[in-house]
Amino acid sequence: MTEPVIRSLLDTDLYKFTMMQTVLHQYPAAEVEYRFRSRNLQLDFGDCVEEIEAEIEHLCQLRLTEDELAYLGRLDYIKPDFIHFLRLFRLDRRFIHLSCHQGQLDLKIQGPWLHTILFEVPLLAIISEVYCRHHHPKPDWQQVRTRLQDKISLVQDSPDNEDFRFSDFGTRRRYSRAWQQEVVTELARQLPVQFAGTSNLDLARRLGLKPVGTLAHEFMQAFQALGPRLIDSQKMALEAWVHEYRGQLGIALTDVVGMDAFLRDFDLYFAKLFDGLRQDSGDPVEWTEKALAHYRRMNIDPRSKTLVYSDGLTMHSALDLYRQFRDQCRPAFGIGTHLTNDIMSHSPINIVLKMTSCNGQAVAKLSDSPGKAMCEDPGYLAYLAQVFDVDLATVK
After folding, report:
1. Contact 230, 224 (CB under 8 A)
2. How do residues 242-260 score in pLDDT, each as one tens digit?
3. What is the 3-class SS of 186-230, one letter each residue?
4. How far apart are CA 167 and CA 340, in angstroms?
5. 176 Cβ partners below 8 Å, 6+ apart?
6. What is d(CA 12, CA 17) in angstroms, rounded to the nearest whole number?
7. What does the domain layout of the chain look like in residue ranges?
8. Is the pTM for the entire model greater than 0.90?
9. In the CATH hierarchy, which top-level class contains the domain 141-341?
10. For 142-194, how does the pLDDT look when each residue is reduced to its tens digit (9 = 90+)?
């Protein structure tokens, strides 16, 4: 094996640790399952499996160092008992089930939520980088760096961009660890005002940047199985988050069962408690108009709220949204693959590893975009759509 893809357990998104802390304090006995899916149906992983296996073995040997633990402890929302837990923590290979059939990767994670939650991002980063090593090993780096510089120049040359803020969200589908670091370093150097930070904790620590993130879809999904009534699952998840962070990390994710269903649960109590919302599927303009109207109906000035966009953004689309809505809210942007795997020689890899069950019960993400729904149980998916009054034909 060449140098390992993952060399630190911090080489992941911040929200994995913030969710993990909540699980430790509130649902330490929950059991979950995650499933891998490649949205690029033509990808062939047959020649990558052996290397992926070796990378997983290395991943499961990693421990957080005292310096890394001290860094986490300086984040004011991370609590001392969680640091003590992490001092003993190691990922367990027994929870991963990996095979390959006719080039298609079959990857499943099963085990305690507390002990499996950190697998997702590093596993996806491993799969992405190993696949790129095998299938796109020699990109034209001069051309790739020119494309990055063009994106930076687009921001530098944009008029009235002083309040434009974006972050790196590109760990899970990056071309490589080294390229993500180069991208983030250049963004921080050339756009010190507009570049707000990175979701990657390892890069944030080593480069002195702000770590960015709150919660992910799996957190909202798990409550479909953790509570007494499915219809109350979103409200329960939001309450659990408020209980854990008491006003910190206050960006709510809206598309687990769709924006309309989310807003029905996002009442005045939550709208005042949370700093804003994150859009990760659907039409961003339509989503924004719904969010603005919702705040206004409750006599909340949306200019006091942050709306975060993170769905397949490019620098062009982020700047367009910023110009359209900067006077009505506080727009912010998380840009992923467009920064960390925009390599001319291939189409960006599009892979996910999503929670599919919790405590033996199916859970699902309906999304606001066709094709993003993911569930192992079609019957449950239909039931979830019925309970939340979602047209299943619009998300399948």
Report:
1. yes
2. 999 999 999 999 999 999 9
3. HHHHHCCCCEEEECEHHHHHHHCCCECCCCCHHHHHHHHHHCCCH
4. 12
5. 5, 129, 132, 133
6. 9
7. 141-341
8. yes
9. alpha beta
10. 999 999 999 999 999 999 888 999 999 999 999 999 999 999 999 999 999 99
